[in-house]
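Long-time lurker. I teach an intro course on protein structure, and each term I like to show students one example going from raw sequence to a predicted 3D structure in token notation. This year I'd like something fresh instead of my usual example. Would anyone be willing to generate the tokens for the chain below so I can use it in lecture? Attribution to the forum is fine with me.
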Amino acid sequence: MTDALALDDLHASVSDPAAASMDFLNEVAARFPAAIPLAAGRPYDGFHTAADLTRYLGGYLDHLAGLGLDAARRDRHLLQYGRTNGLLGPLIARMLARDEDVHVPAEAVMVTSGAQEAMVVALRGLCAGPRDVVLAVDPCYVGLTGAARLLGVEVVPVPESPAGLDPEDVLAAARAVRASGRRPRALYLVPNCANPSGATLPLPARRRLLEVADEADLLLLEDDPYGLFAEPALPSLKSLDASGRVVYLGSFAKSCFPGARVGFLVADRPVTDRQGRRALLAERLSTVKSLLTVNTSPVAQAVVGGYLLAHDCSLRAATRPKAAVYRRNLRTLLTALDRAFADHPGVRRSAPAGGFFAVLDVPFVADKALLEVSGRDYGVLWTPMSFFHQAPAAGLRSLRLSCSALAPDRIEEGVRRLARLVADRTP
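-- Reply from a regular --
Happy to contribute to a lecture. Here you go:
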């Protein structure tokens, strides 16, 4: 028999705790298929069908024909290796101008294989050595913290309150990092309906955070997959950015469909080399992307491009019906939680302004062991908030609930099942 490799001899990312947590959620869902999945943060299945692929692909091919490309060039455009930074820069730039009042040249846009690749590209490009660290809101989306561990980049958590991230805490954290001899390179945050907390950063805090970025010499990594579903809509950090400090991370997973695996990065800050030549940060980062995925699938880009063209390059227009459904689902979830836990003083919910998630604080430990019990004995799944914190003991008495993928009656039944679990576990 061949000798087994020792896990300890492999890179730490192979046994990354964040990835293990997500794998555990998938395993629990597979073991208890009848359980109501209040853990799943995916889009609603009814918004897209396989027939959409042909329709949007055809629309993009018509667009190429309108640009003067003959059949052979159209085929090459879709079926050959493409430009590293992608084909959709002009369409995404139009979309950002229409929807976000963000005005950048097409060259400032990099099309990525999902927003996850955009995070990896940004972290790898910005963090030049072991002294460079990234600040991140805590609790934090595991894709960012996992990507940082994969790259060996240290993440310094900045705690988030129920009211959202406090810019003064960011400034204090950046100063403490610099005082320790390290360099705070960037801050990662989800300012709209954050995953996992659901918190939305108020407008005054957004303006102050940009001032803090200047004071602390920080870049801001603004991840915004849920801004289209926030109510009311607030200006993105990128739209308020006057100095190119915001690197905007976008995704078509929630607005179009996740199977396309298309995201994007917007980085318009100039970079100067030793000879004084200037290029935009997105252009400089193309080398990193070329070593990761060579380029994002032109076929997938074409489908997303067709989707954008079908809606005159406005994701806000395209997602209006979807946003209404997600707002209805969130109202259903919050109302059901209020009804179920009105007489439980030890239970408290968050108050998200939109998006897919709410957080429930409970008077007992809500960990992986209890999630297994919940799926097996109560028929409802949720996500332990401890998965999203860096400190081992943080978030142990909270759980994340998602309402995006379910019909209202299933959300209400899921909350009823959760209420039975809480009642049985409350001391």
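Some talking points for your students: The mean pLDDT is 94. DSSP finds 15 helices and 15 strands in the chain.
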